[in-house]
Specification:
- The chain has helices at residues 26-43, 70-89, 117-127, 129-137, 149-154, 195-202; strands spanning 5-15, 51-55, 59-64, 98-110, 113-115, 143-148, 169-175, 178-185, 218-220, 226-232, 235-241.
- Strands 1, 2, 3, 4, 5, 6, 7 and 8 form an eight-stranded mixed sheet that branches. Strands 9-10-11 form a three-stranded antiparallel sheet, with no helix packed on it.
- It is α+β, with helices and mostly antiparallel strands.
- It is built from six helices and eleven strands.
- Helix 1 crosses helix 2 (70-89).
- It is globular, with a radius of gyration of 28 Å.
Length: 248
């Protein structure tokens, strides 16, 4: 009923890197986005009127009726989306890569669409920096899904058909509403990459301090007496100096 909140499953799908596309490239991206998203819903037997969709430019907001089994979404629909994306991207120079935010909660309908804090959270999860970093680090993977803490605890953790809780990794994410816990999975991988570890591994090594000198020749470890090493024209040799300054 319009104006009255009803419980539902919220799925927000965003295309990674869409801001880099030109105006002539975006229509084809959107066509592919709707093709794979709706094919997965059809394969998972989720159709109107239990499926409501709202265009978001480079993404799609979907709200599913309360009688749609949640495990069918995080299990079958997510796996169908993954496989359909793999097939669609085969041979494409620029593959379509998606971020999916998943949450359950009350949704309010009006003449303009769907709204509510649950909708906001699903959209924020899929658009958060951690989701973008994980998908960027998961080279060759076309999809990352982000489940809210509540959805993970209530649905994912119990497992089910194609639902594997061990393949999720928990992260704390900073959103407009504050710091939230979320669970990330990359279908096809045992665990999603840790963006912090990946960033550290890819960071270039700091330059090592070099001995002072000019040209091809310099001296180091030189003392009044004793011994030291010198390098000249790329060769290393040893210089012995006695206490009177003579070499030996």
């Amino acid at each position: 009923m319009e104006g009255e909140a009803a419980y539902g499953f919220i799925v927000n799908v965003d295309a990674q890197g869409s801001g880099l596309l030109t105006d002539t490239e975006k229509p084809e991206m959107r066509r592919r986005l709707y093709e794979v998203t709706n094919a997965a819903f059809e394969q998972a037997r989720i159709r109107a009127p239990r499926l409501y969709q709202e265009d978001r430019g480079d993404g799609i907001l979907s709200v599913l009726a309360a009688d749609v089994p949640p495990r069918r979404v995080v299990g079958e629909w997510l796996e169908y989306l993954h496989q359909d994306l793999r097939e669609l991207n085969r041979g494409l120079r620029t593959p379509l890569r998606l971020r999916v935010g998943l949450h359950i909660g009350p949704v309010t309908a009006d003449e303009h669409g769907r709204s509510g804090r649950a909708v906001d959270l699903a959209c924020r999860l899929g658009d958060c920096d951690t989701a973008k970093a994980i998908l960027k680090a998961a080279e060759g993977s076309p999809l990352v899904a982000v489940a809210s803490d509540r959805l993970y605890e209530d649905v994912v953790l119990a497992g089910g058909r194609w639902v594997e809780p061990d393949r999720y990794r928990r992260h704390e994410v900073e959103l407009k509403e504050g710091r939230k816990a979320a669970w990330f999975t990359v279908p096809g991988l045992p665990r999603p990459p840790d963006p912090a570890t990946t960033a550290t591994a890819s960071r270039p090594e700091p330059p090592q301090p070099q001995p002072q000198g000019t040209g091809d020749s310099f001296v180091q470890n030189n003392h009044h007496h004793g011994s030291g090493q010198f390098i000249a024209n790329g060769k290393v040799d040893t210089l012995h100096i006695d206490q009177y300054g003579g070499d030996r």
